[in-house]
């Protein structure tokens, strides 16, 4: 009985439809070579960098490979718009997208930056939004989709615990403004539009202080 | 940019509860809900928005009571900690009762604390709050309730009662946002359309095959059918209850975004799938249907041919993950 889940995973993996594998069928070794164009911003270890006064570079280490591959594909197709990323994504072939995604998914994430100086009240508000939500404004909690510990759930909901605060803040604002809309069914956009600037700052700060974990 | 909701005829919960004044809280929620498209309360309705966990911490209740209510909250939102003991599927209480059991139109749980003990048609006798909670464990969690009077049962009951803070017992007014109000049933229900909509709108979270998603053994997205889901005796197997849940609560964060027809079609699609046996099963699906049809299964598809497989729904001995059919708390009471 205890062995059943493992058996199911094995059978499930073998029976997955082709499209589900397409994104994860990357070679991490080849990905490492292709990722030479990424390291200037995302760093050799994939930890990225929080830039308080400019564009923060997200931590990629440990993120789900299929999620990463989708983001790169979306930059290429224009479904996700970012002036910095577009030229770099365009340098990658479809295979290289899968390889780079596989490479970063295997790296060990480090602690995010940007929440260190947040005051207690801000962190408490951030924790509430992330863990319980604020139903007075119909803001559902982050963890209800991003999973236990906000460490990611499947390929559609990336880990956000331990991500840099500057990046989380910028993304939530992009969803609010409608400049990012490559989420399934506008699930993230709907919630982001209900959040105040203070909410966004608070949740970004708190999440950045939480332990990241590869998924 | 919220319009201010005129808060005139709200009775029952205008008391100060901890840190936040209950009437301010009520006004905030009603503004949000009406903006989302939920109906405003009618003049004669009892409106109650329960206190939050922050209000609990800010209150001057006995520290031991706070601890027990916190325990109840923790069990309610992470019922999976009782997996294998009381819970034998992937559900948490909060999987269906959104917003920690506090939200109108998401079967808020506090009404149970002020309307029970009362006669319950489902089991034909007078139930108190503990027996009502036991029903959820028996059917929705496909499990075995914590013992009456046990620490866990008491903590869960305490959480329910504290959520009802300030509401009179046995209120005479109808309760605003109680249950999962079902949209009007359309003339025809379409399995094919329900399947299409499910795959487009629900599968990203609940998966194409209805198994939902667990991460590290914790439920992120509950299973709408199959062994990880509620059994055939749970309230939500009634198609109107499922339609009401979906219409008012799904997709998460986007309530009331589906049309009435869409909500019913998705409910109908899900209702055509298999799940663990009704604990009241007599050993024969037809006999069970005859016995519980009039009070319950006339609203479900139990005992009917599945549009998915053609086989009779519920015609099996599968009890899911548990190795028993019926917990011994499912028994008649005569009070004699």
Automatic annotation (TrEMBL), chain A:
Lineage: superkingdom: Bacteria
UniProt KW keywords: Heme, Iron, Metal-binding, Signal
Binding residues annotated for heme c 1, in chain numbering: 38, 41-42, 85
Occurrences of domain Cytochrome c (ranges): 26-108, 121-211
Species the sequence originates in: Marinobacter segnicrescens
Gene Ontology MF annotations: electron transfer activity; heme binding; iron ion binding
Modifications made to the protein after synthesis: Binds 2 heme c groups covalently per subunit.
Signal peptide: 1-22
Pfam families in alphabetical order: Cytochrom_C
An example Gene Ontology CC term for this record: periplasmic space
The keyword Transmembrane helix is annotated on this UniProt entry: no
Keyword Heme among UniProt keywords: yes
Amino acids binding heme c 2: 142, 145-146, 188
Protein name: Cytochrome c553
UniProtKB/TrEMBL annotation, chain B:
Signal sequence annotation: 1-22
UniProt-listed Gene3D superfamilies: Cytochrome c-like domain
Database matches in Pfam families: Cytochrome_CBB3 (PF13442), SoxA-TsdA_cyt-c (PF21342)
GO terms for MF: electron transfer activity; heme binding; metal ion binding
Keywords, ordered alphabetically: Heme, Iron, Metal-binding, Signal
PANTHER family: BLL4482 PROTEIN-RELATED (PTHR35008), CYTOCHROME C DOMAIN-CONTAINING PROTEIN (PTHR35008:SF9)
Protein's UniProt name: Cytochrome c
Lineage, top ranks: Bacteria, Pseudomonadati, Pseudomonadota, Gammaproteobacteria, Pseudomonadales
